[in-house]
Amino acid sequence: xxxxxxxxxxxxxxxxxxxxxxxxxxxxxxxxxxxxxxxxxxxxxxxxxxxxxxxxxxxxxxxxxxxxxxxxxxxxxxxxxxxxxxxxx
Length: 89
Fold this sequence. Notes:
Oligomer: single chain
CATH topology: Methane Monooxygenase Hydroxylase, Chain G, domain 1
Distance between the termini: 58 Å
Radius of gyration: 18 Å
Number of helices: 3
CATH architecture: Up-down Bundle
Strand content: under 5%
Structural class: mainly alpha
């Protein structure tokens, strides 16, 4: 347990940030899941719309330090490739 005032304050701040980061991470996962569900259902148009909504959420996650830049890029690339493959079928 923290003994100094500054360490106690830092512990409070960390607890608050953990809750906020968790909420933001869950929000990003929900947007990604919408794309995956649309692809699973075979609805390419809906998947494209969901991907368009998903892109800024991933970028916000990068800006807020929740996701690494390359992680967001990899997710977008893989989802885009899956949509492109579904279009060609």
